[in-house]
Amino acid sequence: MTRPFLSTTALLLAFSSPAFAIDKSAVVDNYADIAAAAYGDSLITAKALQAAIKTLTETPSAENLQAAKAAWISARVPYQQTEVFRFGNAIVDDWEGKVNAWPLDEGLIDYVDASYGGPSDENAFAGLNVIANPSFTLSGAQIDAKTITPELLSETLQEADGVEANVATGYHAIEFLLWGQDLNGHGDGAGNRPWTDFASGDSCTNDNCDRRAEYLTAATDLLVSDLEWMAQQWSDGGAARTDLLADADAGLSAMLTGMGSLSYGEQAGERMRLGLMLNDPEEEHDCFSDNTHNSHYFDGLGVQNVYLGEYVRVDGTLVAGPSLSDMVAANDADLDAEMKSKLSTTMMALGRIKTAAEAGFAYDQMLERGNKAGEALVMGGVNGLIDQTRSIERVVTALNLDGIDFEGSDSLDDPNAVFQ
Amino acid sequence: MRHMLFTILATVAPVTGFAEQDPRVAHIVQDHILPRFETLADASDTLANSARAECTATSDALRAAYFDAFDAWVSASHLRFGPTEIENRAFALAFWPDSRGATPKGLRQIISARDPVAMSASDYQEVSIAARGFYALEYLLFDEGIRALGDETYRCTLTQTITADIAAMSHAIEDDWRTDYAAQLLSPSGDGHYRSDDEALQELLKALSAGLQFTGDTRIGRPLGSFTKPRPKRAEAWRSGRSARHVALSLQSLNELSRMLAGTDEGLSRKLGEEFTRASTQLTGLNDPVFASITEPRGRLRLEVVQQSVGRIRTLVREALGPALGVAAGFNSMDGD
């Protein structure tokens, strides 16, 4: 019979004790700690990828190509968990195109199958193939690409001719160079680039193996330096952290903006539902490696991390502290339970996609016209993400963040600001 | 004690549960939403009938029916929640923008293979959304390449099937609104889709702000491209000469919705009306149906001015209308990149 007593006490405490209030800036601070850890892990795993690629280019072999691919897959685990920091933090959103731009017209970079087609109305450089062409004309200027450097990729080729599909840098450019095109359509298998594409002398296949290795090295060096910069921004005194902590309410708003915008517009819409509705095997986020199930899973996990205020580092360490969940629970325990339950439901649905993919039913097979099981799996994830967005909106209301501009990446660069 | 507490709650709950409904929601459902989806269903029927009667791409009657139905869609295109989102209906009615050319690619595949899927509208629901709806039909009626592809009989069947598919989706949207969704929006409840009037109002505010964002950033922003590289061929429905018309129609609809949301706040309603009128007048003054003039600095600047006016409306909605309604802007499908 102690129960009624306990609830009465709890009620009294809830009404009378401001000590139970959660410090907003501690929640924002913990969020910045998680970002610092996740970008730090992205850097650590990118350096491991860089080392594996150095081994591959110095000693090309099937084993060394496989090791580089494995390093790329590992590097995606922490990076995808950082995507939730993108929307809501302008410093990340302005930068992320360098490292994770997608989709890409890969013919810009290297040889492609005849079925790819060439230049299109949208992109005159879709078939440029810089690896095979040490010199070419771009928007009227003659470009010297005799040496493939990080600067050539980032300053000249990235978004060449103002076309976003000209992706010359980042994870997906590296992914293409490691795997090659996935020519299996909705069938079994990922890209299957032969290791001899990096071999020297007569063993070299598909020509220009030295330039291909040079490109791969330059792109990986660039990825490492870009991640170094971002990890710096979240460390003590870094710009991202300082901006966020300057105003705790704006910081909370950034956290929820990231959760909602990634869940709804980006992941549920652009990355998952659209590909399904188009039945296009190239509409998968990691289309060369068939690693899309992991990309989606870790994106979803990133959203859950931010709400729960927890992140498991690549060395197994848990980073945890005061969370949005604590704040919501202090105001409205039912809403906190609802939010947690929706996030779990989404993770279960994304887990099903991952499970099926790892057992051999690849994400691009799920997108095939008329594939009901695949459609149900993908839509399970989409519905979970859409549903959790409604609860995120309720959290915004419950935390009285209504007055703050709540839109996504587009509004971060307010087009009107230019004219003011 | 616990028992008594429940009794008290049970007595109080119905009072708050059936609190006086916000009159703005009912007004918007009856006079803004339902009429638009009714017009869309009717115009889509006429379109499907016209294609059955005469399916050649140059048929005046077919093109006129297409324009009427497309007008009806654009005027409802901001209402992207509930029935439009079931079974991918709105995505399939209106797949645009198409930055990777999925619509011509999908149509070419289907026409070249004489895919039997085009023999029935119900089978056709399986195909990629890029090959369905108003934008795919625009290629069949107005794109020289697609109009010359394969044989005419097959293209005729495909035109009839796409229009029948459009009609079926439009009816499904209208039916769901009438039989189910209007009631959900009008009667929020603790276990319903909308838990309070505030959530219903938030949905409508989101439709307004997402509609403004789409018109400003996509319908206008996409062709504008960058100063050094304007992209008139990225304008919406330029093949059928409808780009500016879509901006005008969407502004009309969004103006009406914003005024209904402002409700009895006459000052705000007037201010919104002035801003919408400014944008529409500037657009009319442009006198450029497919934004062809944006390749010249003068023409470009004039379209940028229209975009800025849409931006001013967005600011007003965010900073004045949202707070007046007491709801946050929420998330929309364009929040990604």
TrEMBL record, chain A:
Keyword Cell membrane: no
Protein name: Putative iron-regulated protein
Species for this entry: Litoreibacter albidus
CDD domains: Imelysin_IrpA-like
Signal peptide stretch: 1-21
Pfam families (UniProt xref): Peptidase_M75
Assigned keywords, A-Z: Signal
Subcellular localization: Cell envelope
TrEMBL record, chain B:
Imelysin-like domain sequence ranges: 33-310
Keyword Signal: yes
Domain of life: Bacteria
Keyword NADP listed: no
Residues spanning the signal sequence: none
Compartments reported by the entry: Cell envelope
Originating organism: Litoreibacter albidus
Keywords on record: Signal
A GO CC annotation given for this chain: cell envelope
Protein name as catalogued: Imelysin-like domain-containing protein
Pfam families per UniProt: Peptidase_M75 (PF09375)
